[in-house]
Amino acid sequence: MPEKESNLQIVRLSEISKADISRILDEVVRVERETWPEEIQAPREKFESRAEIFPEGFLTINLSDLGMVGVSTAEIINFNPQNPPISWEETTDNGWIKNTHTKEGNTLYLVSVGASPRSVGRGIGTRLVQEQINLAKKLNLDYLVLGSRIPGYHRYHQEHPNTTISDYLSLKRGKETYDPEIRFYSRCGLKIAKIVPNYMEDDPESENYGAVMIWENQK
Asked: What CATH number belongs to 3-216?
């Protein structure tokens, strides 16, 4: 059964009927549009594919006063820390996961994590990542891996043209990383394994860079 708290409901698509999944996907697409720039939004068809192939890795969060505000999708892959993924498109079959999800793999790869701006301050993004870490533990996988955007880089690079991506990621806000998305995932317990150029297509805010970030299961 979907997990409920006082005003929060966590739903994994593996726990509900196919008829309910169709209805939920309408809300998933709405959250996707609220969360991401148009050029990187996934269409409904890709969410349908992820739901069909690995519903256990498809997670939504609803708040009683706001409705659905969070969505995360995942797949299982084989991962070698010495040879991390070179692109989100290659690792996820361009978001379809039809040819990349591997039941016998050793790693939970987060295809997407999105929290609606309507829920700012409610900890939804953190809860999505933690629930996926819990799934990695439940499945006894070695790692949880994702490719983070670096959305503050383009603006900073415009203002400081000589700043490389490595320079930018070494910047601090207090004791934490300056970039907001890297800072968020670091707070969730993930560490940067590698910075990859052209990790994501059509992401001008990150100048198409991505950070492969890892959580390791201490078994």
From this structure: 3.40.630.30
